[in-house]
Design a protein that fits this description.
CATH superfamily of one domain: Glycosidases
CATH architecture of one domain: Alpha-Beta Barrel
Protein name: Glycoside hydrolase 35 catalytic domain-containing protein
InterPro entries: GH (IPR017853), Gly_Hdrlase_35_cat (IPR031330), Glycoside_Hdrlase_35 (IPR001944)
Family: Belongs to the glycosyl hydrolase 35 family.
Pfam families: Glyco_hydro_35
GO molecular function, one term: hydrolase activity, hydrolyzing O-glycosyl compounds
CATH class of one domain: Alpha Beta
Strand content: 25-35%
Helix content: 10-25%
Strand order of the largest sheet: 9-10-11-12-13-14-15-16
Largest sheet: 8 strands, parallel, barrel
Number of strands: 44
């Protein structure tokens, strides 16, 4: 005879306005399967199917403290330390937001302004490579002047109120020539990146020169340098990484934190356990992949808990051998920390991308939901390579590396462009940055809990979700976006955290978001909200309405409300007030020196006490005065440059770097003369071709691999100069997204 089904308890939830009635019913349907439910409204009764989305059991891991040879104090007694789950600062859980910006790839006159933009975007830590070839291109001749002035850059970081991570190599990569090694070093008769005395002596001299620049600027001195990264993508030599740490310390570079990149195979990079923190990354595609076809869906849009991206740098990582043994990186000893969440993608000659803001926002949100407690972007700000005395400084196949990159442009299609323009991800990522800065003390200790059922990589119809919780409260993360793919809409989603059950929502279109439950609002408990928290200002809490989802709030005492999003949406709830912004308003929300502003279609930052807009012109702004947003204005005079193009047979000079126009074989080149009058704004060059170069007064000043969008070059680079544009013909020899 058949075995009778085992009863399961199923929550059937009836909704009428904002009052919820919960009935316990017996069902023969197991968890995760749709159950019939009834929705009550003021006008009619609707019947339909809803799926309960649940989670695996919460387990609080053991918190390890004081177990690493890391940490340190500043002169005021504040300490930075590392537990197995999160970092602490001043004894409290702390989440840094780190953005990579290469000082030697930017004009020093603009460092401070760009750092202020980064701070306005929610960055609290600036990481920067110190490329050896930039500072000792010729053996024994050190250059820390001009745009190579490391000390001046760190002082500008301190002036902007930003901490610093110096990535000192000695090998860096960063799409730099030889990975940053000077050519002369490659000609030495000894092996590099291992513990031999000859190599370590060269490194000791180089580290000593770096220390001369940064002396007195470490955290222990009251300075902004809180961390040092050793080498990069060294995956199979823990002893060498340990030697580099000892060498850095012996040269005077003493910091609370020492980091190394932790990616390699699934087992992770071999690192000196307890001496460093392994940091990880994730990119929305792989510019280094040798293929010229679309790649499989990126795993970084799934909540997998994966720290280690085995694909990063796969073009350069050594193959795993039997000598590597049974190594397994002990992840449980370290917090989940990242240094290379791709802020964009740097196009190679054979792979060219169009990066959207949500490509980057969704990826970062997924990592946050997966437990990331140090948010690090590579790169957050683009730049321009220098040209050395002996060679150009970009990675290329001509130097034995697997990819060809532009000679000059390191734009990366990232949050802040090569020339300081704002891209969409700058605005979107700031929503995450504001949140972690204001709620890090409660959020950082929360651990990741998996969804009840995993989503496979080829699944475009199932809901992707995860949770971070302390067992009493938390946040549910949902990602409904996959780059270059369309996900099916998921309707009537009811999420059950085991503590709180959310009302049904429809998850449609390209959206990524997180929802709070049992959230403390200055003593008032928010049972749940179907809006995303952003930040707080005193006892006022700011949320954003998620596209396609009505904002509904329910307090623990049973009261609920559903305000219309907007600047005047303030609702008082006992000890707290709640403001719900529209998505567009939230994208322009900035905290500048402790005050909240919203720009109306403009990106605001603060420089030397003055609120400014990134783009020149006249703009309306709003400032939160504690009760409402009061109106103000910014006026930055702007004169559009006058630009003319005329065909030219050839330039009246011999181009210095014509080989870039012929990568992959000789190509036809067309020339135009550009005349620019006016130094404000940008010159838009809407060309089609393989590669473009601009020469001003005979010197190469800008270049671009065409990727389907117009090229924007600052007018100030061209104003009043004899400028020529060269464009080489395009062939079907690269991956493209246009």
């Amino acid at each position: 005879m058949p075995v009778p089904p085992v009863p399961h308890v199923v929550l059937v939830i009836y909704y009428t306005y904002h009052v919820h009635f919960v009935l316990l019913c017996y069902s023969e349907i197991p968890n995760g399967i749709s159950v019939p439910q009834v929705t009550m409204s003021s006008t009619r009764e609707q019947k339909g199917w809803r799926t309960m989305y649940r989670f695996k059991a919460f387990q609080q891991p053991t918190l390890l403290q004081n177990h690493l040879n890391l940490g340190g104090a500043n002169p005021s007694g504040e300490r930075i330390d590392v537990t197995s789950l999160y970092f602490t600062r001043g004894g409290k859980p702390w989440i840094g937001v780190m953005g990579e910006f290469h000082f030697s790839r930017y004009n020093r006159n603009d460092w401070y302004e760009e750092l202020c933009k980064m701070k306005a975007g929610g960055i609290t830590l600036v990481s920067t490579y110190v490329f050896w070839i930039y500072h000792e291109e010729i053996e024994g001749e050190f250059d820390f002047a001009g745009d190579n002035d490391l000390r001046a850059f760190i002082l500008e970081c301190r002036r902007a109120g930003l901490d610093v991570v110096i990535r000192i190599g000695p090998w860096a990569h960063g799409e730099c020539r030889n990975g940053g090694y000077p050519d002369w070093l490659l000609r030495k008769p000894f092996k590099l990146r291992e513990n031999n005395p000859e190599y370590l002596e060269k490194v000791r001299v180089y580290f000593g020169k770096i220390y001369e620049q940064v002396q007195g600027l470490f955290y222990k001195d009251g300075g902004p340098i809180i961390a040092v990264q050793l080498d990069n993508e060294l995956t199979n030599d823990a002893e060498h990484l340990a030697a580099l740490k000892e060498l850095a310390i012996s040269c005077g570079m003493v910091a609370p934190l020492y980091t190394v990149t932790g990616w390699n195979a699934v087992a992770g990079a071999q690192i000196p356990v307890d001496e460093v923190v392994p940091v990880f990354g994730g990119y929305c595609d792989a510019p280094w992949d040798e293929r010229t076809t679309q790649l499989p869906p990126s795993p970084h849009y799934f909540f997998t808990g994966m720290r280690n991206d085995t694909g990063i740098g796969a073009d350069l990582l050594p193959a795993r051998t039997e000598e590597d043994g049974e190594w397994q990186l002990p992840y449980e000893r370290y917090p989940f920390a990242t240094c290379e969440l791709g802020g964009g993608l740097q196009s190679t000659h054979h792979r060219r991308y169009i990066v959207k803001g949500i490509d980057i926002y969704s990826l970062s949100l997924v990592k946050l939901g997966d437990g990331n407690n140090l948010i690090g972007y590579y790169v957050y700000h683009g730049g321009t390579n220098q040209i050395g005395k002996l060679s150009t400084f970009q990675e290329s196949k001509a130097t034995g590396y697997p990819n060809d990159y532009p000679i000059l442009s390191y734009d990366y299609q990232t949050a802040l462009s090569e020339y300081g323009e704002v891209r969409e991800q700058y605005r979107m990522l700031n929503l995450l940055h504001l949140f972690v800065q204001d709620f890090q003390e409660t959020f950082a200790p929360m651990v990741r809990v998996e969804a009840e059922h995993a989503v496979k990589r080829d699944d475009t119809s199932s809901l992707r979700y995860a949770m971070r919780t302390d067992g009493k409260s938390g946040f549910v993360f949902v990602n409904h976006y996959q780059r270059l793919a369309k996900l099916d809409d998921v309707r009537d989603v009811v999420i059950d955290t085991g503590i709180v059950t959310f009302p049904p929502i429809d998850v449609c279109g390209d959206v990524s978001f997180f929802l709070p439950f049992r959230m403390d609002l200055s003593g008032t408990v928010l049972e749940y909200a179907t809006a995303q928290p952003i930040c707080r200002q005193g006892d006022t809490y700011f949320f954003v309405q998620i596209p396609g989802i009505a904002a509904e709030y329910r307090l623990a005492d049973g009261r609920s409300f559903a305000p219309e999003a907007g600047l005047a949406s303030l609702v008082k709830a006992e000890h707290a007030s709640i403001v719900t912004l529209t998505w567009e308003q939230a994208l322009y929300l900035r905290r500048l020196d402790g005050e909240l502003y919203i720009g109306e279609g403009c990106d605001l930052y603060k420089r030397d006490g003055e609120v400014r807009a990134v783009a020149d012109g006249d703009f309306r702004i709003r400032r939160w005065n504690g009760v409402s947003f009061e109106q103000g204005f910014i006026r930055q005079p702007y004169a559009e440059p006058v630009v003319t193009f005329e065909d030219a047979a050839e330039p009246p000079f011999a181009p210095q770097h014509i080989e870039e126009l012929h990568i992959g074989g000789e190509r036809k080149i067309t020339w135009q003369k550009i005349t620019v009058k006016g130094s404000q704004g940008f010159v838009t060059i809407d060309y089609e071709g393989d590669t473009a170069q601009i020469y001003a007064d005979g010197l190469l000043i800008a270049d671009s691999f065409y990727y389907g969008e117009a090229w924007r070059v600052p007018a100030r680079l061209l104003d009043g100069k004899a400028c020529y544009l060269a464009v080489s013909e395009m062939r079907d020899d690269f991956y493209r997204e246009f």
